[in-house]
């Protein structure tokens, strides 16, 4: 086994002090002389978080690595399971957006500066919570129109950020299943022809935003087919 170099010993010590997994620094060798990124502002939306910092063009670095925990995991832990999620490859950049996140969920972030094959210790630890689901549609009704037909109607969502609706159905108190997508905010009906007599069908509608955020489910309506 090779002897550890002084820089490797420093890396292990700093990892233990910072409570971070050694896998978090596997792509670069730790250099404690590189500047930390400690003044980062974060703004959360439903499914993304935007970050801003002062450019590091005068600090002699090449860019920044961004680390994050999984949603709702390790947020209050002293041994955070940080994983690299992105790299900003310009020292002149000062913004980054992490998208595709879960709504109403907690994440922990931290940043490092990089130069060549080296990386600074972790900087500022930021805890962020994404926004909860927005309000659902306020009017929803359903009717059996024929032996094998149920018609659903609702009032279009007032939020213009809505791009579509998800229709979900439960049969005889079973699990909810996504049965259709209505791809226009102003469209306000759905005809279900996959029904049979003497069953109980429960429906609900969920609005979906352009950023893939979702609303709270509508009230559920229950129809017993004849």
Provide structural commentary.
By secondary structure, the protein is mainly beta. The protein has one helix at 6-18; strands spanning 29-30, 40-44, 49-53, 63-68, 83-88, 95-98, 106-115, 118-119, 126-129, 140-146, 149-154, 162-171, 177-182, 189-192, 200-209, 221-224. It folds into two domains: 6-129, Immunoglobulin-like (Sandwich), CATH 2.60.40.10; 140-224, Immunoglobulins (Immunoglobulin-like, Sandwich), CATH 2.60.40.10. The N and C termini lie far apart (77 Å).
First-residue to last-residue Cα separation: 77 Å
Strand content: 35-45%
What is the overall pLDDT average? Answer: 87
Shape: elongated
- Oligomer, anyone? single chain
Low-confidence stretches: 1-26
Task: Tell me the helix content.
Answer: under 10%
CATH topology of the largest domain: Immunoglobulin-like
Per CATH, the class of the largest domain reads Mainly Beta
Q: Which radius of gyration do the C-alpha atoms yield?
A: 25 Å
Attribute tags:
mainly beta; Immunoglobulin-like; 2 domains; six-stranded mixed sheet; four-stranded antiparallel sheet; 1 helix; 16 strands; disordered N terminus
């Amino acid at each position: 086994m090779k002897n550890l170099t002084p820089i490797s010993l420093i890396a292990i010590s700093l990892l233990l002090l910072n409570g971070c997994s050694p896998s978090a620094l596997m792509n670069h060798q730790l250099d404690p002389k590189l500047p930390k990124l400690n003044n980062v502002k974060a703004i959360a939306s439903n499914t993304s978080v935007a970050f801003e910092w002062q450019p590091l063009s005068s600090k002699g670095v090449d860019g920044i690595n961004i680390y994050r925990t999984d949603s709702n995991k390790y947020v209050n832990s002293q041994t955070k399971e940080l994983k690299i999620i992105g790299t900003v490859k310009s020292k002149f950049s000062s913004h980054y957006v992490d998208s595709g996140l879960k709504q109403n969920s907690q994440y922990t972030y931290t940043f490092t500066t990089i130069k060549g094959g080296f990386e600074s210790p972790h900087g500022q630890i930021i805890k962020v919570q994404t926004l909860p689901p927005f309000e659902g549609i306020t009017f929803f009704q359903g009717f059996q129109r024929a032996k094998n037909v149920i018609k659903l109607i609702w009032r279009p969502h007032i939020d213009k950020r809505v791009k579509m609706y998800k229709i979900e159905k439960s049969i005889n108190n079973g699990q909810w299943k996504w049965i259709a997508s209505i791809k226009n905010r102003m469209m306000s009906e759905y005809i279900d022809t996959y029904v049979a007599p003497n069953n109980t069908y429960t429906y609900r509608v969920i609005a979906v935003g352009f950023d893939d955020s979702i609303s709270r489910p509508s009230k559920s309506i229950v129809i017993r087919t004849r």
